[in-house]
Amino acid sequence: MKIAVPTERAEGEPRVAASPDTVKKFLGLGAEVVVQSGAGTHSRFVDAAYEEAGAKIADGAEATLKDADLVLKVRRPEGEELGLFKNGAAVLALMDPYGHEEELKRVGEAGIVAFAMELMPRITRAQVMDVLSSQANLAGYRAVIDAAGAFDRAFPMMMTAAGTVPAARVFVMGAGVAGLQAIATARRLGAAVSATDVRPAAKEQVESLGGKFIAVEDEEFKAAETAGGYAKEMSKEYQAKQAELVASHIAKQDIVITTALIPGRPAPRLISKEMVASMKPGSVIIDLAVERGGNVEGAKPGETVEEGGVKIIGHLNVPGRISGSASSLYARNLFAFAETLIDKEAKALKINWEDELVKATALTRDGAVIHPNFAPKGG
Ligand code: NAD
């Protein structure tokens, strides 16, 4: 059984899908692991570290992917890379399936069995495989570090002989995995932190981290969580009431970090141009949802925009800005899932198509898209 770890091709993707640590674990399962030379460079995993862990180093994608049974990737395979996979090879990656039906079709047609790690069910058994959590957690941390770097004042209250510096006010919008880590990080830096979310369960979590919870808590709010624990899209009326509350709160903030997402939908718009204009010059907004349409009006993917002295930061791939940790955790997530796809006696891939984790994540098989949410309709 050959496992391949190619270098990521997508622009601005410094992460890698295996670490020396997970290479060792795969060898323990009887696999041969081939890592493309340079694949880990941007996560500070040098070729020699993979070699020491027992991997073979190959030059180029072709030699790396040749005859591989299982391919570990960060991003969806695309373009000429598809032709390098063995027919029937499996790939684990962030497949970014929503709105990319054509790309998925091409992956299927290449004879690849693709699993979308971001569709992993959020059940106890799969916690260790939860790439959304491992990456969002780091993104939440990094967002606060980025905000602190762009802010021209201190985060903690400082009482000095020369006078007192007040604590920065940080407002976190969306208190999921990224938001909760942002709250915790901002608190550790000494900021005064508040947060909002449309899920009622978030209130207690925010408060337990020492944040103040800000939300319109009406009947709709009390029912605003899906069985899977995700946010629902809220009614126009609710959004208007919430926007009014948020508008008065935002005007008093120094830092705003937005993380609000709804699976399979564009990110909800939470901050209008008027709200940005109400903030003091020198304030900083970080839009972590910028890749999914953005929570902030005026935010631009990959850019920092300044409006009336307020910086709106739209970094892409924020987990990639902390690529060493992001790669280590992502690699662990992948190993945990891959282990369930491997028959340890036969030392070969053996996919149990009845397993709920396989059913939830498998996108393509036998030349076609098979996932019910992404397969062509009416065919
Ligand atoms: P996410 O990335 O999909 O969204 C981020 C946050 O934005 C969510 O908390 C969501 O409620 C919020 N949001 C959406 N619309 C909003 C709006 N209009 N205004 C304000 N906030 C808005 O969410 P996530 O971080 O992936 O977490 C979703 C849930 O799943 C959380 O309850 C989390 O604790 C839970 N979770 C469970 C497990 C597990 O059980 N294994 C693992 C991870 C997360």
From TrEMBL:
User: Which GO cellular component terms, listed alphabetically, does the Swiss-Prot or TrEMBL entry include?
Assistant: plasma membrane
Q: Which residues form the Alanine dehydrogenase/pyridine nucleotide transhydrogenase NAD(H)-binding domain?
A: 148-314
Organism per entry: Lutibaculum baratangense AMV1
Q: Output the PANTHER family linked to this UniProt entry.
A: NAD(P) TRANSHYDROGENASE, PROTON-TRANSLOCATING NAD(P)(+) TRANSHYDROGENASE
Which key words are in the record? Answer: NAD, NADP, Nucleotide-binding, Oxidoreductase, Translocase
- E.C. no: 7.1.1.1
Q: Which PROSITE patterns match?
A: ALADH_PNT_2
Any idea what this protein is called? NAD(P) transhydrogenase subunit alpha part 1
Which GO molecular function annotation, any one, does this entry have? oxidoreductase activity
Annotated ranges, domain Alanine dehydrogenase/pyridine nucleotide transhydrogenase N-terminal: 4-139
Tell me which family the UniProt entry assigns to this protein.
Belongs to the AlaDH/PNT family.
Query: What superkingdom does the record give?
Result: Bacteria
An example GO BP is: NADPH regeneration
Return the SUPFAM superfamilies for the record: Formate/glycerate dehydrogenase catalytic domain-like (SSF52283), NAD(P)-binding Rossmann-fold domains (SSF51735)
One Pfam entry for this protein is AlaDh_PNT_C
- Reactions catalysed: NAD(+) + NADPH + H(+)(in) = NADH + NADP(+) + H(+)(out)
Reported function: The transhydrogenation between NADH and NADP is coupled to respiration and ATP hydrolysis and functions as a proton pump across the membrane.
